[in-house]
Input
Amino acid sequence: MTSDTSEGGLEALIVADMAGTRSVGSVANVVHEPSDPLAALRYWQIGDPKDYDRAWTIDLVQFTEFIRSTQPALIGALSLEDDTPVRQKFLSRLQGEISKRGVIDVLRKGLKHGAYEVTLFFASPSPGNTAAQARFRFNRFTVTRQLRYSQDDTAHALDLALFVNGLPIATFELKNSLTKQ
Output
């Protein structure tokens, strides 16, 4: 069997391991129902680079789905499904808070936007806390390959990006770390 030692091959191996799959040819999300409440940390969903909104630095599809499943009233209130001034004002506020406080603090403490308290992450549950375990399972952990980040459509792309509930937490560029053997 021949090994793929290219940059793309390494990306594929990383994504397959994170998603708990053997094949990474499909962009479809991988769904697992393990009994371990923290299993979501081992079974990341595979993100689609087309869902990334470069202007707001967010995977808007994953973010909207997290809000829909946890705080459905906010979908309409924040106009998350339509590109309106209401949504733009909210996303601007979100990005401003991330710039000021950092993405981890915003995930942990959420965001107040006008009359709305927006929860952006459910913390890891303590053993035996079934309510917290149920909430934690709503979190959406995604890994996305070849994420174009510049506003123009040039070759500026990150090899891998990690998102929690649509918010980017880490990015990787692998090409400088590979060596020929």
The first helix runs from residue 7 to 19.
